[in-house]
Amino acid sequence: MCTSTKRASLPRRHNRDEIANIGFIVGDRAVAVIDSGGHPGQGEALKAAVHKATDKPIRYVVNTHVHPDHILGNAAFKAPGVVFVGHHKLAHAMALRAPHYLATANRDLGLALNNDAVVPPTLEVKDKLELDLGNRTLTLTAWRTAHTDNDLTVYDSKTQTLWLADLLFVEHVPTLDGSVKGWLAALDDLAKQPVKLAIPGHGPVQRDWPQALEPEKQYLLMLRDEIRGLIKQGGTLEQAIGRVGQSIRSRWPLFDQYHKRNVSAAFAELEWED
């Protein structure tokens, strides 16, 4: 197993959206890549790292969710016999977002990408799916709407390693693109799993389980509870954006860049709950 871990960063020209944790797992017969990076060049570098580490063939490329820093390296792995795996809602999410992702990459990151960079899954996960790499079985779990509506985790039972992707942010403020209530429910379920090593979507790998989930969980609980309280008082979205979470602003890198979006998303969800 090999990972490349990244610290909290925004996608910029100097990093070309190489900001997410990506890696691969080697079995006796085959290799599974877990996320492919933010552009085809990063995917090529990851493929070269696989070939340097092993002569086993790459059989699977697993995309954990739709965000571009996790999927736009896919094209580097297109070859006969390679299966692209994702949540059953991933292909639809890719189709909806591809024009925006490609335009942003071309305009803001200096990456000349076209539609070939977006490679949808050829094998979809609706609940759970096992991939046999040869004396190494990976369990893929499709989650209900949480960080996004297409989150997938990968569990390597041989090493008790859990790849959470963006269901876990470490040293990077969580980014909400799905459901705050669903995300909290997913964290409760994830905490019950036997894990020796947890690999977040962003930030260093974690060995203290399930305590590694707590900072993110506390952030999401704050988001939910403060917004609920404001809604009960008749507060508006504008008021929520200005007030919610300001007491913990200094605790999270990239808070100013993402927190307001989180408040907006959570407010829209909680405004209509019973």
Shape verdict: globular
**Helical coverage, percent range:** 25-40%
> How many strands, which pairing sense, and closed or not: the largest β-sheet?
6 strands, mixed
> Can you count the helices?
7
Integer average pLDDT: 94
Distance between the termini: 45 Å
Parts with pLDDT < 50 across at least 5 consecutive residues: none
Number of strands: 11
How large is the radius of gyration?
A: 18 Å
What structural category do the secondary elements indicate?
Answer: alpha/beta
Please give the order of strands in the largest beta sheet: 1-2-3-4-5-6
Give the DSSP E fraction (strand runs of 2 or more residues). Answer: 15-25%
Oligomer: single chain
Order of helices and strands: EEEHEHEHEEEEEHEHHH
What are the main properties of this structure?
single chain; 274 residues; alpha/beta; 20% strand
Description:
- The structure is a single chain.
- Helix 4 (180-190) links the parallel strand 10 and strand 11 (197-202).
- The protein has 274 residues and is of the alpha/beta class.
- The N and C termini lie far apart (45 Å).
- The protein has a six-stranded mixed sheet, with no helix packed on it. The chain has a five-stranded mixed sheet with strand order 7-8-9-10-11, with helices on one face.
- It has seven helices and eleven strands.
- The protein has helices spanning 40-53, 68-71, 90-108, 180-190, 214-232, 237-243, 255-270, and strands at 2-4, 22-26, 31-34, 58-62, 83-87, 123-125, 128-132, 137-142, 152-156, 161-169, 197-202.
